[in-house]
Amino acid sequence: MTTLSDPPQQGSFKISMLINDTRYRSYTFQALALALLILAAGYLGSNLAQNLRDAGLNISYEFLGYPAGYDINQRPIEYNSQSTHMRASIVGALNTLIVAFLACVSATVIGVVAGVLRLSDNWIVGRLMSLYVEAFRNVPVLIWIIIIFTITANVFPQPSAFRGDEPTASMLFGSFAFTNRGVFTPAPVFGPGGWVVAVVFLASIASIFWWRGHVKKVLYDTGRILPTFLPSLAFFFIPSIIAYFVMGRPITMEYPELKGFNFSGGLNIRGSLIALWFALAIYTGAFIAENVRAGILSVSKGQTEAAAALGLRPGRIMNLVILPQALRVIIPPLISQYLNITKNSSLAIAVGYMDLTGTLGGITLNQTGRAIESVLLLMSFYLFFSLSIAAIMNVYNNKMKLKER
Amino acid sequence: MSDTQTNSIAFVRETQLPQMDPPPGETGAIKWVRENLFSGAFNTIMTLLGVYVIYSLLVGVFPWFYNGVWTASDVRECRELIQDTGGGCFAVVAERWQQLLFGFQYPSDQYWRPTLAFVLLFVAAAPVLFSHLPRKMLIFTGAYPFLAFWLIWGGSILSPVSAALGLIVAYLVFVRIEKYSSSGAAFAGLVGAVITWTITGFITDALSGVLALEPVASRDMGGFMLNMILGTICVSLSLPIGIMLALGRQSHLPIIKWMCVVFIEFVRGVPLITLLFVANVVLAYFFPPGTALDLILRVIIMITLFSSAYIAEVIRGALAALPRGQYEAADSLGLDYAQSMRLIILPQALKISIPGIVNVAVGLFKDTTLVSVISMFDLVGMIRGPILSSTDWAGVYWELWAFAALLFFVVCYGISQYSQWLERKLQTGHR
After folding, report:
1. Is residue B6 over pLDDT 70?
2. Which residue of chain A comes nearest to B407, CA vs CA?
């Protein structure tokens, strides 16, 4: 704007115009900024080179190919202590994604329930939810992680408490054991043909979505309202159950059993994973509750009244009028809460959960001494993850944006 | 018509009947309870559930607190005193509160210094937070950082005074030259400050004993004090940096804009803990060989960068929320960029971004507990390290974590209540 305010002058170019003439001043400043940046980068780079030379180090990623030599207690993929550092990092990254996914789902459920309940007419429930939100928002998540980890490590009984004729602890439903070495749950075992059942199950979920889309289309085209709930239920259960029996019950459950000093078999969810998962879910749930509340309050009361005047029932008012408008307000902060969960999952290192920060940024860094490389890789992983989610969010925002003319 | 009607009425009441009381179920407490707690089957269930939750909370917490033991020398004595009453062993807090608040290396006869600095923090922050207080108090706010540094770190008072003097000289020079050229004035101010610092540097070296407090090294800071120090320093430092980043991101100059965008997105995309790793193990490589910066200083640098990116985003939102006309009006008055920002845009943008900045500040204050991961002894680090691993107090988890949670809750809840109060106050101005 201001760059065009000086009239073009005839005559020669003077050095002083670089500062005083608004047409050239912006170039001067940018050149200055660029020069400063290059200078600073050069200075830091030369310091780095000098320091590395003094310490006899170099920048190299070869260490990723060396055997890691340490064990990881939660392995989503094949890994042993002879595997490479690279593989250890991948296991760590997968563990990060696992805990982030679990925490995102639970935090959303907790947050939506708490946010809706906080707006409830019920005085006691409203106050209780305010208490929950304020208590969890105002205390650092690290403290919550450690508190929940302390619960799993000190309140849950030892595996030996389940032993003997009169055990002091018993398994929930005969299949869930809460011990201070983690929670043991039954695990599904896929026999031959088990994948068919899994595929059928996924296909039936897809068909639920297809049915819902079809119902909507029919509604908009003809005005007829087709049922959705019962057909969805049928789609969900019937094909999978049929496939399960047709294939000869290929999926069985493996139950945890007490052997020696510990449980074996089944799925072992470590105390560190539980601590991280629950703490992140409850902590972030409090923030999501606030976002949900703000989103619902942002839809003006006139919208509800107008919908009611059209003759819509309360359920449809919520689904067709309130939610689409509230979601527009809720979703962007919700996504950034998901990003926060992913970033906060790096606090795993405080309770010994082997996520990427624990493997690459923890043991690998300490063993190899490759501080710069490890931290750089660590940052690029999180950065890549954040930026891709941010990109998806932008696409979504543009789609959901109010179409203004 | 009307005549016939009047005649046909046999009785006309001449006075109005006194109003009857509403039915007992429709007034006062009963009505409130009925409408708010038992208006339907679902609501009744929710109420009963809520009452049960409150009951179990009270049953769990009350005996723990009421039967708590406050004087004991170690955990074994504590357990003997508690017996089976289910009380908590709060003696650990009574015994170790100094370590929890100040860390285990701060000289105990000097505790008054951080305490005084903490109290004065409220005096310094008051005129910023409450606009109806006299503006003269801002002078103290300006002097506070130097005073607090002297109180907490100790040493001669001359070094903070000379630092302040340099800034004052820079300001005076800037004001003198500003009417000719703002960028020239900024440069001249910088030169003035450097000259002042060089001169006063000789004086401070010569008179290092003047009004000297016992110096305390940075690595001796700990406990909740460390959280407070990191929180206040990093938030106040990141404000000006955040403002500049936000202005840079909104700027029309492509190179400057992209520099700011890259920095902000990079910092916001990585967890704070990786930045703390940088402070711990990487940052030292980037300083000239031979310089050894304190860990606390490196951590302050990284946390400041971290929070400035977040504050920049808050301020950018405020800048974008200002009506376009404000920018155009500033331009049409013939103000240059610096003037229009300083006089027109920023005062309004900062005002509407205060709640967002406060949110960032609360989040950052909570995040200062992360320094315990890189083995600094802040409140969390103190509890996990020296206290829980000592033979005297091993196993006293709940009391310590409850104490830590309470401290953070009081501070953060207080700040967020202030932010909500301010939001309400600002809203009435616009409606």
Report:
1. no
2. A139
Give the total number of structural domains in chain B. Answer: 3
Question: Pick from B19, B16, B50: which is nearest to B36 by CA?
Answer: B50
Q: What span, in angstroms and rounded, lies between the C-alpha atoms of A198 and A188? A: 12
Q: What is the DSSP code string of B285-313?
A: GGSPTT----HHHHHHHHHHHHHHHHHHH
CA torsion sign for B165, B166, B169, B174 is: negative
Q: What is the distance in angstroms between the CA of the first residue and the CA of the last residue of chain B?
A: 55
| CB contact (8 A) between residue B413 and residue A138 | yes
C-alpha B199/C-alpha B360 separation (Å) is: 39
Quote the minimal CA–CA distance from A152 to chain B in Å. Answer: 13
Distances (CA, A) of A296 to A281, A286, A327, A331: 21, 16, 8, 12
d(CA A175, CA B415): 47
Give CA torsion, residues B185, B186, B191, B192, to 10 deg.
70
pLDDT band at A2 (very low <50, low <70, confident <90, very high): very low
Residue with the two structure tokens 């902000």:
B264
Examine the domain organization and report whether B202 and B233 are in the same domain: no
On whether both B274 and B204 belong to a single domain, the answer is: no
Q: Is B285 on the interface with A (CB under 8 A)?
A: yes
Question: Could you list the residue range(s) of the whole structural domain that residue B237 is in?
Answer: 219-430
Distance CA B107, CA B299 (A): 23
Query: Which residues in chain B touch residue A346, judged by CB atoms under 8 angstroms apart?
Result: 271, 273-274
Tell me if B402 is assigned to some domain. Answer: yes
Q: How far is CA B120 from the centre of its chain?
A: 15
- B313 and B424 housed in the same domain: yes
Token pair 């202590």 is at which residue?
Answer: A81
Q: Say if residue B97's pLDDT is above 70.
A: yes
Same domain for B207 and B291, yes or no, is no
Q: Which of A189-198, B92-101, B217-226, B311-320 has the highest mean pLDDT?
A: B311-320
Q: Which of A19, A138, A341 to mutate to test the interface with B (most CBs of B within 10 A)?
A: A138
DSSP string for residues in B168-184: HHHHHHHHHHTTT-HHH
- CB-CB: which of B269, B282, B287 is closest to A371? B282
Apex A392 CA angle, A390 and A393, nearest 5: 60
DSSP class of residue A120?
S
Q: Is B409 on the interface with A (CB under 8 A)?
A: yes
Band (pLDDT 50/70/90 cuts) for residue B14 is confident
Chain A CA closest to residue B331: A2
Pairs of residues, one from chain A and one from chain B, whose beta carbons lie less than 8 Å apart: 160
0.90 surpassed by pTM? no
B75 inside 8 A of chain A by CB: no
Contact A379 B274 (CB under 8 A): yes
List residues bridging with B223 in a β-sheet.
B378
Would an 8 Å CB–CB cutoff place B265 in contact with chain A? yes
Per the domain annotation, does B103 fall within a domain?
Answer: no
Q: Is B181 in the A-facing interface, judged by CB distances under 8 Å?
A: yes
Q: What is the ipTM of this complex?
A: 0.86
